[in-house]
């Protein structure tokens, strides 16, 4: 709960009327005498200089294409430590696929053996006479050095090297054709001798061969195995091999690689997708590879001889020195380390470049220079084997804040316990040197009072900062954030910026305008990121009113990993796991059998129900042998059961809209069948568990019920499609075209499970807007200029093919800006809107195989389940991902799609 640290009274003096005398004395004592460590001279503690090349390093890693990318933190950190590198011209290309050679080079750099690899590569230089033609460059030889060294170290096996370097007949034919074409320029040059031509041909063949072998994209499985060997992970076999079987596609992994990948999963270096797949044959992007390496970077650097420390910047001193014509601005950062020691990090700016030294600072997701670091920043800093500071990163963004009321401080164990605003208790270890403030003034642990309101900053599991609050304001004054409302989101009206919350079984409506910060994971994400079922905390600066000053999405969404139906035949309380037989899993409204029995851990807060009654884990043994429905989640790569519902009686299935719902009676009607729902009912929307109050009349649902006589819903799956991209698909008649826009008339808006009509709307068009014409069987790409010039033809006959006035179209818009337009023939449209997941991508033939398909039904105004798999031809499609035009190469099998299609041909494909 954010409070003002202090408040001035009418005379301008500090009001501390609620503070006890001992606290006032402690505050004054702390201010006057300060930290005793500050009395030390810097000569008494280690002085660590920065590096001379920090400005050049900053220029090399200031990438223009990684801002706001999900992998930005890992990319910036790994690049600042020279583990990964950009592509030049300030580009990193985070979404580009990474080659086998690049992956090996990054692994070798992390091992600190780049110099060895480069020297090995230089020893392999082909010095044969090529008449001055530069075929093989330094980078080619260095690449060979990385591969040779990795082979020597056993990271790459001889069999893997043989498979990679063996070309198919088609590849060899294509290579020879390319070689012949490339050689013609040299063979026509009479200045080359026959021997030189032969040497050029051999080097050119070597270079081209690599494009078919080591320059090809690396697979997830291959990277996992190489990383495991580089890390020296012991292959895990037998009963210890558990996590691999949580993956639906573990059978797609080579048998000999399973033990190493089990080790990778257990170490948390890689994990499966939200759909429970490892996707072993999929390629990796540069950002994904960097994230894997980022998980390893501390251990890898320490093995190289790096010293990595964490601590709080206690003081910053600056001084200016002049000598030998140089003016040096010296900055000393006094750091109180978590181990109780002190360090002085030294940076120096000078008008003589050779005198300047510094480090890369990474703060608030921004790269910068030492001046970005402030007092009281909690930092991690990296000291290279030469004793120089290379990188300083603040941990405030990666730390968490816990707020609540003080319950206990155990001084002997250095622990603190608080109760949060959800009435849950938390205990934390207090880091050595943790700062304590009350109302913004320094204090000591002994001055904190039982029941006092506190904010704890936690980093690496330890409390590094305690901010206490005692109300000193006048009666009737409300501080911003003093009024708090906490509830679950029932409904979201994004058009009008309103949300409806359920608080203590009462509903309340609140306004979230475009200026209201909506905070999730320390980032302002806006109202579009709020989803039904989220637990929201609203802060107000007035006692009444419906407009908060800030909204927090209180904790991460609880995602559903899988839904099983199985017979529970055993319970191991020691391991906290249930043993399942006759297992089947839920897939697109169907139960699909699995031949494998499994052991499944229970989550720490799992719920178990029998006949609608919540029972303890200890009673599980009383119900062994019975069938149950089990909802699981992914807990950092480990699948756990979060809800277990024992089945009673017969199972029935229904798929239709909710006709009636009575929350007070816990009853609903679907397809003219009445059934009950209660706390035991598993309710799913968008792959996550939600509250029963999120159900609405007319929701399209798939229901599984069980019982004899009266039936209770064990599963309610809301089958609507949520775009969740901020994009809206409009369909209407083009009534007017302007120079930079268009007007649609009689618009249908398809958003989520709702379809509603508005009369007229004007949109903007940019040069980046993609436009296609699908009125005939042949898809035509239309330039923005040709489309906007159509406004001059508005008085012409409609049959003029270049006249788009009065034609119907789909328009994909973000706000008022149109990203894509599909011009259609209203009379023979035959196009449908579908939501689907991806089973496979054939990039060569430009085919996406779709599964879990939902088709929008105009007549019923609902989503229909389509159990078929569709091979969608996307050769003429417009792709949109992350709100921007994209290509098929940007699409991943883990993406979900929102598609405008006609039969098996996709016209607009939106990643969501």
UniProtKB/TrEMBL annotation:
InterPro entries: SLH_dom
Keywords carried by this UniProt record: Repeat
Chain ranges of the SLH domain: 58-121, 244-307
Name listed for the protein in its UniProt record: S-layer homology domain-containing protein
Biological source species: Proteiniborus ethanoligenes
Lineage: Bacteria, Bacillati, Bacillota, Clostridia, Eubacteriales
